């Protein structure tokens, strides 16, 4: 079975087909800015109406349109009552039609994307590209899922209750992994961290009966998930101290990554990663334990883990021409991830350890306190200086104490004499922040200078 023609897709999602139904879209696209020639453009009604951009999509090479009313265009169109529902059904139906032998799901408050990459490398599986981990991106990726796969690894994210439940309806899972239940998006959960645990636990609730899911043995909220009545249809695999699967002999290799020994019921296996930081070792151990427990060859798992490379914004390391290094962790930020990345920074070689941090988001009424505590924890870990920017930069500064400068915006951080240009040569620099603050601009500045 090759990719679906527009006619075949119409049989799955319904609607009225206008034009040449033999057209075979190479992929689906929700955004004209990233649309590639050959795609089917999906006109969603969100903050802006995607139908307003449909003709622009055709000009950029779209070969088909998924719309909720006919448009004045010669481009083939599939007209449906609801383009979002049709998008989700398209991805769901494609997965049903070409379902791999094992479908894995990965979620967690931190490390989802890195762990997805590690697990896919461990099992030699297809993976959702980039951060297509929500109710739009996941079906978009699944719509052109290749056939004949042994494994597919799907990242599943959420910011509110019910999102992962919907994702597991679109893509029922055979196995799952929760990296950590932290505090990201806590603003959206009146019940606090228990609410986050329930939302992450929707992945476990969505596992097929008899499915297996892995978690850190030390995570109390994952143990809480495992004890819930709605999780008893699946088997929990704890990984860590005192468990058959775990890790030991951790070795920091600087810019080369890290190494450890994976403990399994059948013995110990050496693993070398290209990703720095003990948090990545935990992620790799979770991925390896799940893969091996489901029958993957341990040596192949170890070799696969060693091929995983960090993506931009997710642990990519840059050498600085004047010495030292820059750890690009700019994709997003939470207290747990900031501290994990700071620990990774301290394992790298170079001069003094410093951080450039954008503020965090979705922390609710506790935001000021959490920023202060994060600043204090960074100082306690041994970072010597901090450059902070954004609406809670002052709270970072209050917690960190001497050695911090705070700015309201990136532009101020960039332009002030005490800002980016004041960071010393040879320093080890962690750069991180919420998506809102686009901390990747800091990385771009350093690379340009």
Describe this structure in words.
The protein has helices at 6-13, 54-59, 83-97, 112-123, 137-142, 163-170, 193-205, 220-227, 278-293, 298-305, 335-346, 367-381, 393-400, 410-415, 440-448, and strands spanning 16-18, 28-29, 40-42, 64-67, 77-79, 102-107, 126-127, 151-155, 173-178, 207-216, 235-239, 246-252, 258-264, 267-273, 316-319, 325-329, 353-358, 385-389, 404-407, 428-432. It has 449 residues and is an alpha/beta fold. It folds into three domains: 6-89, MurE/MurF, N-terminal domain (Udp-n-acetylmuramoylalanyl-d-glutamate--2,6- Diaminopimelate Ligase, Chain: A, domain 1); 98-305, Mur-like, catalytic domain (UDP-N-acetylmuramoyl-L-alanine:D-glutamate ligase, 3-Layer(aba) Sandwich); 316-448, Alpha-Beta Complex (Protein-Tyrosine Phosphatase, Chain A). It has a six-stranded parallel β-sheet with strand order 7-8-6-9-10-11, sandwiched between helices. It is found in: Cytoplasm.
Number of strands: 20
How are the strands ordered across the major sheet?
7-8-6-9-10-11
Strand content: 15-25%
CATH architecture of the largest domain: 3-Layer(aba) Sandwich
Determine the CATH topology of the largest domain: UDP-N-acetylmuramoyl-L-alanine:D-glutamate ligase
Q: Label the structural class.
A: alpha/beta
Q: Give the count of structural domains.
A: 3
